[in-house]
Amino acid sequence: MTDISDGAVPSGELVLSLRGVSKNFGAVSALTDIDLDVHAGEVVALVGDNGAGKSTLVKILAGVHQPTSGTVTFRGAPVTLSNPSTALNLGIATVFQDLALCENLDVVANIFLGRELNPLKLDETAMEVKAWTLLNELSARIPSVRIPIASLSGGQRQTVAIARSLLLEPKLILLDEPTAALGVAQTAEVLNLIERVRDRGLGVVMISHNMEDVRAVADRIVVLRLGRNNGVFYPDASNQELVGAITGAADNSVSRRAGRRQAQSDITQEGQI
Amino acid sequence: MTGTIKQAPPLLDRSDVRVKHETGIGGTVSAFFERVRSGDLGSLPVVVGLAIIWTVFASLNPIFLSSNNLVNLLFDASTVGVISLGIVCVLMVGEIDLSVGSISGFASALVGTLWVNQGWPVALAIVAAVAVGGLFGCLYALLFNRLGMPSFVSTLAGLLAVLGMQLYVLGSTGSINLPYGSPVVNFGQLLVMPHYVSYTLAAIPGIVMLVTGFRTIARRRAANLSAPSAGSIIVRAVAITLVLELIVFYLNQDRGIPWMFGLFVGLVMTMSYALTRTKWGRSMTAVGGNREAARRAGINVRRIYTSAFVLCSMLAAFGGVLAAARLASASQQAGTGDVNLNAIAAAVIGGTSLFGGRGSAYSALLGIVVIQSIANGLTLLDLSSSLRYMITGAVLAIAVIVDSLARQSRVSHGRA
């Protein structure tokens, strides 16, 4: 396990820096003393078991929850993310796990929600053009942008949510389980998109349970366990190391299962000889 | 790969070959039937219901459809209609205001006291009454936003409290007569548009439809988007102009269109524009559909709720002033009885969902015409109010049943 400080220093400027962030929900400490750095042009994967506090951390960065203690520094200045619009205005865009779309509004209205062009006389044509541009960048398969979200599939909704996060040209994008609802091709598209976003010099924080996706795009992998930092890894780290950090023990159900299968195949091979 | 589109599609929104798109006038018609089949009824049930109600009453009593009676109907519809317009606002965000009747009664009592008893200028008295109405809205918003009090409860409390204030303001006399011949009472009882004005006003929606329609076509073509056909826009504009001019022609056989109804329709059209073409309206729909999503999109949800409650209360107060003008009095009975429920029922019958996020300003107009037709028709038949309540209740129940059946159909057809 490596500590946060002695990782290889990425090239870009420090976009986001958390120091000692804690969050309590009543008697439950969802997060304790979390440190996290994100640089420009870097993809940081946030991994951890269920209940490790990943989504809580993302919600703090999105301004949905406020930290109980600790400091958040964004682009060199300490900030208070008191509500979602503060975070959006600073340049922190979030794609939530539950997507947070309004099912009764159409695709264009959802992408521009809270950011409508020409507030007193909505410019529907310009908004529709921009919506198509964003969706085409994502190679989205949306039949029409004038149908309500309720009639779209899960993957289509995911694409709309990601398109919406890109609308404001953010400096930092938070993706909470971006590929969980997607098909094979769409997952690849989203991973490509994440890389394109990184190459444009944005910081990306991605939560995922899928180790394959994480290893494919992440520059650093930050492990949370029971609301605490539990190590920083690089994509070349072995699966066993990662799983060990996530579950908190070298001897865990995943490694035992792997060991059993290994032993099984050894026996089979011996039998064949 | 994602960056490039292999072959530039002819239109930005027509590149997906799996989706069928209807074009031309025939396409518009078949798209309409397709929408109705899938449960997106719009205002169709109200129009059909209205046709049935009018046929029944006209066959029972021919006076019902006389120009004279319909003009009276429009006078009566305007007062509760304005209140119902406010109800549409709170229903859009998924809340309710049960105190609109009391607020309207209190506003009429205030106007009576300030204007007739205290000698204020009438305009100032009306502004004061509407402003006081707005204060009640602020209070509901405060209770809802800060204390998390459900609007159902806070406005139920308001219903009683404001009724108490109304009785207190009116004092022992119990009613204040507004002077006959004053501009306000004339406006509520007599003033109708000159014929040329009503014909001109009835032509405006069609013209606006044509102008904005052609402008939209030009803009969408320029932006490489599909555009509706010019033919369908012309057909719709001509149809709506014909219908409106026919109505005006028929009503002009008697006195003509009441100015008060003109004011109501003006308010409805303004509200419709605000709800569909402004950022505020978009936010209202979003908050009604998914409050948390709206909050995370950076919308100030509390301010949206406040605007809805305040608008509703102010429109209720203004409706109360109009009712006082209509009756030429401010009495203890004003705003009590069925005013509350008629206003809410009108919005729901017109097609605004009780669950938020779905509705239109025009539902207040259509709904109140239905409610007022029933009330008016039953009065003509000389039936007791007991029957009137029962029948209005049944119509409301049918409207809600149609709405929930249509909602189920929409869900199964993949529409919101």
TrEMBL record, chain A:
It comes from Phyllobacterium myrsinacearum. One of its GO terms (molecular function) is ATP binding. InterPro entries: AAA+_ATPase, ABC_carbohydrate_import_ATPase, ABC_transporter-like_ATP-bd, P-loop_NTPase. Residues 16-251 form the ABC transporter domain. It comes from the Bacteria. This is D-xylose transport system ATP-binding protein. Keywords: ATP-binding, Nucleotide-binding. Signal peptide: none annotated. PANTHER family: CARBOHYDRATE TRANSPORT ATP-BINDING PROTEIN MG119-RELATED, SUGAR ABC TRANSPORTER ATP-BINDING PROTEIN. Pfam families: ABC_tran.
Automatic annotation (TrEMBL), chain B:
It holds the Pfam family BPD_transp_2. It is a multi-pass membrane protein. InterPro entries: ABC_transp_permease. CDD domains: TM_PBP1_transp_AraH_like. It is found in: Cell membrane. GO terms for cellular component: plasma membrane. The chain crosses the membrane at residues 44-64, 70-91, 122-144, 156-176, 196-218, 230-251, 257-275, 304-327, 339-357, 364-381, 387-406. GO terms for molecular function: transmembrane transporter activity. The keyword Membrane applies. Keywords: Cell inner membrane, Cell membrane, Membrane, Sugar transport, Transmembrane, Transmembrane helix, Transport. The keyword Transmembrane applies. Part of the binding-protein-dependent transport system for D-xylose. Probably responsible for the translocation of the substrate across the membrane. This is Xylose transport system permease protein XylH.
